[in-house]
What does this fold into?
Amino acid sequence: ITQLYGPLNWFGNYYRVIQKNFVDMEKMLDLFKEPVEIDDPPEPKPLIVKGGEVVFDKVSFAYDPRRPVLEDVSFKAEPGSTIALVGPSGSGKSTILRLLFRFYDIQQGSISIDGVDIRDVRQKALRGSIGVVPQDTVLFNDTIKYNLLYGRPGASDHEVFVTAEAAQIHDRILSFPDGYETKVGERGLRLSGGEKQRVAIARTLLKNPAIILLDEATSALDTRSEAALQSALLTRSRTTIVIAHRLSTIVNADQILVLKEGRIVERGTHESLMRMRDGVYFDMWMKQLKDEQGLGGLASMTSMD
Ligand code: ATP
It folds into this structure.
């Protein structure tokens, strides 16, 4: 009987995992709101991600044909580099990440990873090579360990602990009533915004993808912990594309792309952009400094440098 039920049971579990993943995918970030149907190519090419080079070449895109959202966007993320996307609300930052995940097809131009157009590969392969750290992480109503293993279901306990430590959440988990077996989520232990983000980071570290998309939290973490966590993620062995809300966390990015109304209006390193005194980036900095001063946040800003 065990022999008979074994595989069925396995399938049952597997099916539940798929279902849960599906729900999570849909909820994942506001970033991935309302994904539309995208078909795999009839003869998919293999996607062998090596360095994780990302190229947007003259990309134009609109959710609604009457209203363009991205126009003629071109950039190249060198393997292992960090690219930061900044710009006012609605300028198209999240859309760039959604397009890289191929939740929508673009109307013009091309997007490629390590030289392969993302339309030519299976979506599963594409999404398997990219890790996402959303701003708002959805936790399953399951144990904290299950939630971490979601990054890579086959990982060993040791690997889970190591990555939790890197994401600075291991000690916290040990302080929970049942440690890694503690139930979390809506019906279990509620984690704070910052803790949830650490779980998302640990998951992504477990998955160990060549490309990471990071939607920086606006308020879950203070600037100092945010910088520490980002440095756990940022290594030269991965390409990182980060949507930055707080400019202080991206001063070391290799390239900052400043978006405005769907176009890249400025690009460069922090230093080069700050030299343009009449530039959009410079303005954003001045505004943010003023706001943080107003909120008494100057101390945390200056201690960053
Ligand atoms: P924020 O900083 O506020 O998150 P953003 O720069 O990430 O903004 P996007 O979310 O990329 O901006 O949105 C760019 C534009 O596309 C906005 O005008 C938005 O209203 C529009 N948009 C976003 N998602 C959709 C959608 N699913 N359908 C139609 N329009 C959308």
